[in-house]
Every structure is written in structure tokens, then in C-alpha cells.
UniProtKB/TrEMBL annotation:
<dbReference type="InterPro" id="IPR014710">
    <property type="entry name" value="RmlC-like_jellyroll"/>
</dbReference>
<dbReference type="InterPro" id="IPR000595">
    <property type="entry name" value="cNMP-bd_dom"/>
</dbReference>
<feature type="domain" description="Cyclic nucleotide-binding">
    <location>
        <begin position="15"/>
        <end position="59"/>
    </location>
</feature>
<dbReference type="Pfam" id="PF00027">
    <property type="entry name" value="cNMP_binding"/>
</dbReference>
<feature type="region of interest" description="Disordered">
    <location>
        <begin position="179"/>
        <end position="207"/>
    </location>
</feature>
<protein>
    <recommendedName>
        <fullName>Cyclic nucleotide-binding domain-containing protein</fullName>
    </recommendedName>
</protein>
<dbReference type="InterPro" id="IPR018490">
    <property type="entry name" value="cNMP-bd_dom_sf"/>
</dbReference>
Amino acid sequence: MIYDELLQQYVSVDIGTMHSGDMFGEVSLLHNIPRTATCTTAGHCELLVLMKEDFKNVLQASVQKQWDEVKRAMSAFTYFDALDEVARREGCIVAKMKSYLPNETLLGDGVGVHNFVYFILSGRCQMIESLQVIVSTRLGHKYYSLYDPYVPKEESEQDFDTKYFGAYKDLIKDSKSSQVRDSMDSSAVKAESSKRDSSRGGSILKSSVQRNMSVDSKCTNVTIVTKEDGRPSKESGRGDVFEGGIELLEPTGAPELRTSVRLSLLAETTKPPRNIKTYFMQVCQFNPGSSFGFGENMRDRRIVALTHVDCMLLPMIWLLQRNTANIWTRIQHYLEKKIPTKKQLFKEFVSSRRWQEFREELVDDVVSRSNTVNWTSVHDVPYSIRMEEMVDIA
């Protein structure tokens, strides 16, 4: 229960959902205070209940150690200095402590704990983004262009006029053509009704059409069968026959055996070009004291551990409930501004490729001018130096 200043009363707030392996009720046993929350079953549950004495003998030491570890981790960040003892106790309950091995993915590619914020306690990790680049060769030179189907094409003023104002022109044309068709159809109906009995046939036709419309709105298997001479067709099934040649067919087949058809409009998907290649670029690095997972853009990105990494995970909703001075929103805005975008990474990728090509051409030019034979190959260069050059290029 928390106090709502707007309603001026205490209201209940959901803290979270527990699953197999979780526990509750240890707060009151560790601090000798009343229960701080109410747990309600959402389905069939089987619980293991420990009394106070059994809890002290079995779990108090391990739980207290885990809480002390979370408290030390929270004290390493100045973000939590304004929290009181009750809030810190709640943080110890909802926090998760995780460790990652080198080259293990922390977040991204369907891996990681979603809706949780990561606080790095020790170790170092990097953010890697995949770029899809179209490579084309013209006159012996390679040209690169970024392929990103998720980013819409920038509209010019001409495209804007065609998209929005052109629709009104088509609407006016359709309305005019529909008016012409309606006038032609009405004249044809009048000519046909003059040949027949206008008093009887017209009234029956009107009533039958109204009945047909009412039935068709309830049942989709109703069909109208007519013949040129105005008589009902013999090939049609059973149904109600009205004068004027209109027949309402009964639904065929049992209702439970009918197949439902769902129609949907899907956007046209274009196939990617054949000369497309995927490159991986290092966006940034996270050191101890860094945090991520505030809702920043993670499309085509993943965070991989460079060394052994220890993290503290806290639910995003719990942090937003204690958003002192709007600090978490400001951190998210800071990360979105500081982390390079895909276009900036592509620009750096092209510049690094141009420098690599220029260096290779310069070396080939210098070597070609010398008359001596150079039998030195890439394999003669120490492997550590080659790895450093590869890291510099990437």
C-alpha cells in the first residue's frame, strides 16, 4: 500500500509476479516488522512454508548475505542515495544479481531479462551493432550504401503533394464516376420497370431486396441467384424464392464444419539485393558504474561481455516509481544522444574502408617502384600486431 497524494488515501500497487523458485515473507522475519505486502495466488500453487525458527536455522544467513550484497551494490551508485530504508529494503527484494562470462551476451538477440535495468558492478562489456551494406564495384572501386528496410524513405515536397493531395483528386474522380454509374443504372432500372408491371413487380423487388440485405448481414453464406427471364435457377439449392427472380439460399454444411476466412492487407515486402553484406561495428563500451536497459534503441544491437562481468538488475517499473528529479528519464535521454546512430556508424565504416584502400594502394605503389624482390608476406608479421591492426580497422 502506498499513499496517493492526488487521491489523499492509500492505494494498492502491484509489485510483481513470482514464479517457481521465488520466495516471500522473509522481510518481516529478518527485520521483525509486520508484513509489507499481500501475496495472492493467480492459479494453482504448491508452497513450502517455513516457520520462524526453521527460517533462522536454514535461510537467514544466506538471505541476509544476499541482501547485504545488494545494499553494497546500491551504495556504489549515487542514484540511490536519496532512498530511505524502506525503499532500499524493497530494492533488495526485487533486485537480481547476475554474472556473465567473457563473450557472453547480456542483452539483445532475444537474450537477457527484459524490463530490467542493468547496473555494471565489475568488468567491461561492449555494444555491437550489425550493419547491412550494399557493396557495388564501378571502374575498379568499391562503393558502399546502407541498407536499412526499417527506416522509411524521406519524403520530398513532391511526394508529400502526391501522397496527400493526390488522394483527394482520386476521391473526386471516383465520386463523379459513381454518380455517372448511378444515373445510368437508375435510367436502366426505370426503362426495365416500364416494360413490366410497375405497381406489383417493383414493390415485391424492393421488399425482397430489403429482406436479402437483412439476412446477408447475419449470414455470410447467403447467395442471390437470378436468371435473365426473371425466374429462379433450378441449379441452385433449397431456399426462399420471391417474385422477380431473387432467391435466398440456405447455408450449406454444419455450422461447426464451416471454415472461416480471414483477409488482411499486408505491406509489400521487397527482397533484399544480392550484393548485400553484414558487418559488425563496435558502438561503445560499458565500464563499471555504467548502466543500460532504460528503453534505448536496441534494434540490430546486442551487448556482449569482454571480461567477466557482474551486474545488478532492477525492475524498470520500480525505478520509475522512485524517479527522484526525473533522473532515469534523463539517463535514457543521455544514452540516446551519446550512443552513435546507424548512419553515424555507417559513415565511420566508409571512412575506415577508404583509409584501408588508400593504405593498400600506397603500399602497392611503393613496392612496385622498387626493383628488389620482397618475399615478405602477411604471415611473417607477428600475430599480435595483426590483431591490433584488425581491431583498429573495425
